Amino acid sequence: MTTTAPDRTSAEEERTAPAAGGAKDGDPFDEDVLPAPKGASRALLRSLLAPARGRVRLAALVMLLQQAAVQAGPLLVAFAIDRAVPAARRDDYGPLIAVGTAYLVSALAAGLLQYAFVRLSARIGQNVLLDLRGRIFRHAQSLSVDFHERYTSGRLISRATTDVESIRELINDGLQELIGVCLAVVYISATLLYLDWGIGAVAVLSFVPLQLLMRSYRRRAHEVYRERSTAIASVIVKFTETMNGIRPVQAFRRERANEAHFSELNDRHRHANTRALLEMARYVFLSRLVANVVLAAVVLWGAYRVAGDGLELGVLAAGVLYLRRLYDPLDQLAMFLNSYQSAAASLEKIAGLLAQRPGVPEPAEPRALPERRAGLPGREVVFEGVRFAYRTGGEVLPRFDLTLGAGQTVAVVGSTGAGKSTLAKLLARFYDPTEGRVLLDGVPLDALAVPELRRGVVMVTQEAFLFSGTVAENIAIGRPGATREEIEQAAKAIGAHDFITALPDGYDTDVRKRGGRISAGQRQLVAFARALLADPAVLILDEATSSLDIPGEQAVQRAMATVLHGRTAVVIAHRLSTVEIADRVLVMADGRVVEDGSPAELTGGTGRFADLHRAWRDSLA
């Protein structure tokens, strides 16, 4: 029978902490965009493109030649009207044939160069996206538990999917349009100025209002697309949270409430999309208005000059064609700006994520643990002047000192929120103390390389998380190089062998997502076997028997009595029956150790543990 409620998870303690100590304003985790150094987005983009620097230069050269081939057309038309056609009327067809041949060659060259550019840009884009997804995944794994308890998995999924997809659209489609438009502006402006200073000057001056419109659109659209990206992330977070918690959702009939909240988030997403479309429509309308006014003015002015023999007809025709080519991509440029703003917002969020540093960083100069003494697999643990508070405020563990002897099994009991799980997580170095230090055989935990620390200290939590894969693979996570015989020995020692061999494929049975193919108690036994196979010096069991039934718990306790002999063990006790295997019991209240002694000493006393023990015994009567 359960006599004390399970300790809060650190996430729950964090949420309740402000009531005690006062919340700190401006927590960046309240927003979807994490803080990053100035220029982090541009630095990230440069680092992504750096490996492909040679291909980027080649792609730029190809696009340069492609635009030269494309923009040769109107110039050839002007030559044909003003030179080749009059020559043909004099029976001189050479210039007309030359113009036609040049036009066909330029069209063919433009197509081939376009094909080459698309292939190059596609390869560059895929390599960039592959690198970016890999960086997000690797960096997210390296961040501390503190980060993951505050930044939801839905947001991480949004960074690696929706935001990366926005960048993909920009690289695959938008950049080609941008480079094409920029080169077209340069080529056409230079050509028009060469053909006629007047028409060229009008074309150049028309860029002034267009540039002002573009700057206005970029400024207004940046906030809109940032809002849209946040709205998308909120939808993904809600969807992920609901599907992960589908059992309590259905058990407590939360479907309608969740649907209402999801509809609200969807409406926010729709509103952000609508604002983005309206901003783009406004830009397209105004830019088209400027372009059409300029084009009409050039045609009227040019026609007047042609009538007065002040301008050749071919030059006017080429000028009109060039201006149409100059202004027609305005819609494409709007689509590029659309993609650009979306990608810029996404890149800002990814850069903010990648700028986060682990709360428990690797030491600059790692120290090694001393060799274990013969026959003593455990190590001494010392909490020296330790104090701990979460970043959002609220002290969980006031300053305290504690020594756990090597090879000692220590049970920690207390009511909800007493700080039991926090103490265990400090020992596992999921967090670093706010003050003081935790020592393992005299070596501070923050001076140990993380791989060595994880080999020396292993934690089995109440959750007993299993990965998709076979039972054997899940047990072997504790020691990847273990043989099948060693895996089976660990399972036998913990009492899991019988149920594993009864599965359809024994140790090769796929446990599926989160171990859903086996029961909660069986998942807990597999997690125990995983930890025992790792052979740690310090084993932390954070309410790890809470999912077991009475026979399963008794089997585990029998195995633990043998397996934990000589090994330092910290057992966060959910059931007082677990305490019976301990050499020492710590009773915690309000983050302090209020009782410390052997089970027999505390049971025979008059303190809190004695009261709990009597209540537990009475419940079994």
TrEMBL record:
Domain ABC transporter: 381-615
CDD domains in the record: ABC_6TM_Rv0194_D2_like (cd18546)
This protein's record includes keyword Membrane: yes
Residue stretches making up the ABC transmembrane type-1 domain: 58-342
InterPro entries assigned: AAA+_ATPase, ABC1_TM_dom, ABC1_TM_sf, ABC_transporter-like_ATP-bd, ABC_transporter-like_CS, P-loop_NTPase, Type_1_exporter
SMART domains: AAA
Name this protein carries in UniProt: ABC transporter
Pfam families noted in UniProt: ABC_membrane, ABC_tran
Span list, region Disordered: 1-32
Residues that span the membrane, as ranges: 58-81, 93-117, 178-195, 201-218, 283-304
Gene3D superfamilies, sorted: ABC transporter type 1, transmembrane domain (1.20.1560.10), P-loop containing nucleotide triphosphate hydrolases (3.40.50.300)
Alphabetical keyword list: ATP-binding, Membrane, Nucleotide-binding, Transmembrane, Transmembrane helix
Alphabetical list of PROSITE patterns matching this protein: ABC_TM1F (PS50929), ABC_TRANSPORTER_1 (PS00211), ABC_TRANSPORTER_2 (PS50893)
UniProt-annotated location(s): Cell membrane
Topology in the lipid bilayer: Multi-pass membrane protein
Annotated SUPFAM superfamilies: ABC transporter transmembrane region (SSF90123), P-loop containing nucleoside triphosphate hydrolases (SSF52540)
